[in-house]
Design a protein that fits this description.
CATH superfamily: Thiolase/Chalcone synthase
Oligomer: single chain
Strand order of the largest sheet: 2-1-3-4
Structural class: alpha/beta
Shape: globular
Largest sheet: 4 strands, mixed
Distance between the termini: 31 Å
Helix content: 40-55%
Number of domains: 1
Strand content: 15-25%
């Protein structure tokens, strides 16, 4: 994926999000009048990039500029919003409890406050010894999980 290097964090976020958005809207995309927010939930963040940066610094190396861009999850959420012309808020959070419950609570706040008509909830985790796991669900249209 252009602009993101070394880690599968951003490509996996984009893959699950686009699969979810295509299932909901097809190739036409989100209708112009719909404000779709993004809530990205990850307790670990981009572990692969963080490890690479740490190892490079410890070895006295130089960090590539793309790592500054992708070092926060907001960058991939913003990329998705721009790519899909989403017009709602972007929120990234590290859960204090159950990731799905915390994400749904944040999505509900955005919808209840009138900031978004629907919310693309993305849950992603990278573990040192397992493949990256992610899921996306589109919450909105009056339906509550």
């Amino acid at each position: 994926m252009p602009g993101f290097v070394h880690s599968d964090f951003a490509p996996v976020v984009v893959a699950v999000a686009e699969r979810c958005l295509r299932r909901g809207y097809g190739s036409a995309g989100v209708p112009a009048g719909v404000r779709t927010g993004i809530v990205l939930v990850s307790a670990s963040g981009d572990l692969a990039s963080a490890r690479h940066v740490r190892a490079t610094v410890e070895a006295g190396g130089r960090i590539g500029p793309l790592f500054f861009f992708q070092s926060v999850p907001n960058s991939v959420a913003g990329h998705l919003a721009a790519r899909w012309n989403l017009r709602g808020p972007v929120v990234c959070l590290s859960p204090t409890g159950d990731p799905y419950t915390d994400g749904v609570a944040e999505a509900d706040l955005l919808r209840d406050d009138g900031d978004a008509d629907e919310v693309l909830l993305i849950l992603i985790e990278q573990a040192p010894d397992k493949p990256t796991e992610a899921v996306a669900v589109l919450l909105g249209g009056g339906a509550r999980p």
